[in-house]
């Protein structure tokens, strides 16, 4: 996303911002300053599509350049219009389980706020100098698209974001993007591949899954299982005795409080 640079505040004021974490009063009037929930179009940007390319930011608060781990004490840089949220304002993004801090400008956000008065936040995804070249550039852009939510500033499905959030909300500190091609996945699932079970023979299949947030509890579901098989929603174990022959396309889903991951595989029930 293109950034529109603005002059930096004197260092003494930046220090006060870092101590207070929120300092919207030092910038333009803010549309939301007390704790509140807002619906926002969520996009991402990284090293390759910053302007100019790199980690530079318009208004350092806690960081000298775009960064952060996503905790309450070290929120990740995000960009928006200063009339929308003041400099150094902190938000929490539930579907990414991370805190973010306003340290950069976003020309698209400026236009959206001025024209429509609707929220748009552009979150720092990461990247490095190598992301200006392939294959890392393509991987970074794919990761940004993966975590962009809904389709436009006016999409009714835009997620709810917490402005001025409390501490102690669920957090994962895994990088959103790590070169050369790794994009954060909140839930990982191992596809077991094609399964073949003779009809009338007891079967059991445990599919490995893990959540990047240790505090989360996973829930499991499956659609399209052969007749006679069922899934344990707490453990994910598929078991039973299949009846009847045929090929089934199984959709296996793992979910936590905000995210989910899905795989598909074939389960063939053969002649006994």
Account of the 3D structure:
By secondary structure, the chain is mainly beta. The chain folds into two domains: 11-174, no CATH class; 188-270, Immunoglobulin-like (Sandwich). The protein is built from three helices and 17 strands. It has a six-stranded mixed barrel with strand order 1-5-2-4-3-6. Strand 7 and strand 8 form a beta hairpin. The protein is elongated, with a radius of gyration of 23 Å. The termini are far apart.
Keywords for this entry:
272 residues, mainly beta, Immunoglobulin-like, 2 domains, 6-stranded mixed barrel, 4-stranded mixed β-sheet, 3 helices, 17 strands, disordered N terminus
Overall structural domain count: 2
What overall form do the CA principal axes indicate?
A: elongated
DSSP helical segment count: 3
Order of H and E elements: HEEEEHEHEEEEEEEEEEEE
Structural class: mainly beta
Strand order of the largest sheet: 1-5-2-4-3-6
